[in-house]
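Researcher: Re-running this chain for the archive, since the previous output was lost when a drive failed. Same request as before.
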Amino acid sequence: MALKNIKNKIAATNRMHKVTRAMEAVSAVKMRKTQLAALAGRPYARAALQILTRLSGSSELSKHPLSMEREQVRAVALVVITSDRGLAGALNSGLIKVAVEAVAPYPKEAVAVYAYGKKGQEYFARRGYKIERSYENKADDVDRAAMDELAVSLAEAFIAGRYDAVMVAYNNFRSTFEHVPTARRMLPFSLPALRQLVEDIAPEHGKYSDLHALDSVPAYTVEPAGEEVLGILAPRLAAVALYHMLLESKAAEHSARMVAMKNASDKSKEVAADLTHEYNKIRQAAITREVSEIVGGREALAA
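Model: Regenerated structure tokens:
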């Protein structure tokens, strides 16, 4: 390889290193912000879900339209929370794999996809799934209004019988280097599903590791009227669950992107070092060859 080509590659690699370092720094700032938001929201989300968990032992919730189990699941709504941008390692591919496995028992025509994020929307659209609604996921801040609207829309569609089940696929944030692609059933409400959601909120270590699920109570008195209160409360609690899942996904996205950019920065540094070594080796060989030619010519003239 010519020295000029190697020199150009070294310069290009160093420029790439600067870009990835800058992206790593930006992602680190966003990661800290979204991690704090996700962690700070965990006690609130847990408390909201605990209300449903406790109410699940009451007759009012068991008779509520959002808790009614269907004998046969003919139509499923799938909410997929991915990112709009790439450069985040296996963040989106791992989540999409889990989402596909969650709806694998049902035919494509029975699945309606609500895609929050461009990556999920593109994947399911290319494979013939019906995209019921799609949302952009470019902003760093979480759009609470969009989650409220989506939760109300899904609850109304479930009550109307358009869907027999509602599932959500998202990245459950555990730590900077760990996020778990997760698929959970949101509707109909059930004690096992709610308990699992609460347990997912509690990390294994750290400040909020002492959050644990509480058991439901056998009876719960609701005033002024159980049906009236639950009619307003249940969709709102579903919106809280969706909002928290989006917070977790945001934290996982920026964490994964920071780690990916750090790996890219480290790799570009290694490549630049290897190219520099090869450049010096070839240049030294060329200098040695030129010196040998000069010495050989001098000896030929002397003879």
